[in-house]
C-alpha cells in the first residue's frame, strides 16, 4: 500500500524519538522523510500549558530557537464558576496536567478536575478545609483508574508532620493513607509533575537533603530517588 508523503509525515510526527530511530529501517523512503526538514520543523514546536494571572493558556514554543525565542498563545481556557450567577470565571491558583485532564486548585481554595476541551468538570469536596499549604496530585493505576493524592503539612518547624490521603472517584470520598515526619515539601518548591501514571516532586528530608519523591497509585506507596550534585541546582527544576 502506498501512502502519500503528507500522510506519512503526519504519522511520523506522532512517533517518539526512539521510535523514529527504528522506523528509519523500514525503507529508504521513510529514512529520507524522517530526515526531511518538514518533519524537523513540525517536531521543533512544543505545546505547553501555562498559568498566567490565574488564567490557563495553551502556548507554542519553538525548541530550535533557544535565543530570541517567542512563545505564542494558541488558546485560552475559560472555567465558569458554578457558585456564581454571573459569568464570572474561576481564578486558578495551581494546575497539574495528567493525560489531558487538569487538576486545579482555585484561588478561593477549591479543588477541581477539569477537561478544558470537553468542558467536563468534577468539583472535589474536601474531607476537611483546604489550605494553601496543601498539595494535590492526579495519577492513575495500572488499571487506568484515576486517583487524587492529597498531602497536608502541620507544624511551624521541621520535622513537619505530613498527612496524606487518597480521593477515590468511584466512592467520591477521601480516605487517610498514612502520616510521616521523615520528609516534607518546601512551600516555594512544591511543584508536582505527572509521568506515566505516577507523580513526582522535589522533597526535603529531615536531614536537610533534597531528593526526588514519587507516588505509585497502584500500590499507594512512595518511592524516593537520590539526586546528584549541588542541592542548590534543583531550585529551577522545582519552580
Automatic annotation (TrEMBL):
Q: Please name the SUPFAM superfamilies in this protein's record.
A: F-box domain (SSF81383)
In Pfam terms, one family for this protein is F-box
Domain (F-box) ranges:
3-43
What sections of the protein cross the membrane? none
Q: Which domain of life is it from?
A: Eukaryota
Q: What is this protein called?
A: F-box protein At4g10190
Q: What is the lineage of its organism?
A: Eukaryota, Viridiplantae, Streptophyta, Embryophyta, Tracheophyta
Gene name, Swiss-Prot/TrEMBL: LOC104707900
Amino acid at each position: 500500500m502506498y501512502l502519500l508523503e503528507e500522510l506519512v509525515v503526519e504519522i511520523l510526527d506522532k512517533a517518539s524519538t526512539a521510535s523514529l530511530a527504528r522506523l528509519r529501517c523500514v525503507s529508504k523512503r521513510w529514512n529520507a522523510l524522517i530526515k526531511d526538514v518538514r518533519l524537523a520543523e513540525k517536531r521543533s514546536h512544543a505545546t505547553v500549558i501555562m498559568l498566567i494571572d490565574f488564567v490557563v493558556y495553551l502556548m507554542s514554543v519553538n525548541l530550535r530557537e533557544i535565543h530570541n525565542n517567542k512563545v505564542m498563545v494558541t488558546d485560552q481556557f475559560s472555567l465558569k464558576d458554578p457558585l456564581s450567577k454571573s459569568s464570572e470565571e474561576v481564578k486558578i491558583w495551581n494546575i497539574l496536567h495528567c493525560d489531558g485532564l487538569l487538576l486545579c486548585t482555585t484561588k478561593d481554595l477549591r479543588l477541581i478536575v477539569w477537561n478544558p476541551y470537553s468542558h467536563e468538570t468534577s468539583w472535589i469536596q474536601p474531607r476537611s478545609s483546604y489550605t494553601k499549604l496543601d498539595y494535590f496530585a492526579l495519577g492513575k493505576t495500572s488499571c487506568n483508574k484515576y486517583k487524587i493524592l492529597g498531602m497536608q503539612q502541620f507544624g511551624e518547624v521541621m520535622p513537619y508532620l505530613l498527612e496524606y490521603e487518597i480521593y477515590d472517584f468511584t466512592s467520591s470520598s477521601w480516605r487517610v493513607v498514612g502520616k510521616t515526619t521523615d520528609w516534607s515539601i518546601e512551600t516555594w518548591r512544591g511543584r508536582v509533575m505527572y509521568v506515566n501514571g505516577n507523580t513526582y516532586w522535589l522533597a526535603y528530608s529531615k536531614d536537610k537533603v533534597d531528593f526526588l519523591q514519587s507516588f505509585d497509585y497502584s500500590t499507594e506507596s512512595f518511592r524516593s530517588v537520590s539526586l546528584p550534585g549541588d542541592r542548590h541546582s534543583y531550585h529551577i527544576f522545582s519552580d
